[in-house]
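Review form for a predicted model. The reviewer records the input and the model, then writes brief findings.
Reviewer: anonymous (R2)
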Amino acid sequence: MERQLTDDYERVLLRRHEQRIARPLRTPRPRPHRSVPLGYVSLREHPGRRLPQLLAGLVLYGFGLSLTVRAGLGVIPWSVLNEGLERHTPLSFGMATAAVGALVLLLWIPLRQRPAVGTVANITVLAVASDLGLHFLPTGLNTAARTGLLVAGILMLGLATAVYVGARLGPGPRDGLMTGASATTGRSLRRVRTGIELAVLAAGWALGGDVGVGTVLAAVSFGPLAQALLPYVVYRSEAERAAAAGDGAPPTAARLPAVEPSSAPAPSSAAEFSSATAPSSASAPSPAADAPLASSA
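Model under review:
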């Protein structure tokens, strides 16, 4: 009798446990920088959307660069490095920029990055867009207007970086270094980009480049802005969208038979279960009923 009560008690507890584990599990939300695809996607996929996105991002970047230059409160870290090289070498500012770009492209090799149409467009479109911006922007502005140009330029640079990198047609030399280092090390885009900008800034300052308030703001702002905006503008391939749609249903812990819920609380001990299910005196068998069995033995 006692063994039967113990078995019944264990079955009740097992039902309660099955009811709890049959509920869908909560899957942890993936970290944003790891859920955003950044690899190159063939131009054959939706070129009508991605090419305009690439060109728009590069034009915005060139115009944002001209805003920061016209503000006169400090150039971006890469320009600080170019100015430093110009002072210590016979290279002009443009040649120094090309030399730095070539060096950065060499760093792509260990990071397994490949140049593409976006890499070539980055070199050509940026030069034209920045020159046009400097041509049309006024000069001789007061401090308040220059501060506004600086803030607008930094915001535009962050947005433009996310837009043309999100087209996934091949990043520019500096952005390829950012995405390649992020994929290799597993670090977020924010940390990688900020670290690169600060390292370039330190090297340019050591070579005598001009550093201002805008330089520091740009160095610490590009990474967070690009990481925050990239998930909203990145292009996802058809295979990636199909995989994301297939993984949308939340998984369950196990496929268990349906168990009817019970309103009564589970017994806390075997003794309590025994007292709750013990037969009453009215239904208990009498000794007389067992007498024939005893006599027959």
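Findings: The CA atoms of residues 98 and 168 lie 23 Å apart.
Further findings: Confidence is low (pLDDT under 50) at residues 249-263, 280-297.
Recommendation: see findings above.
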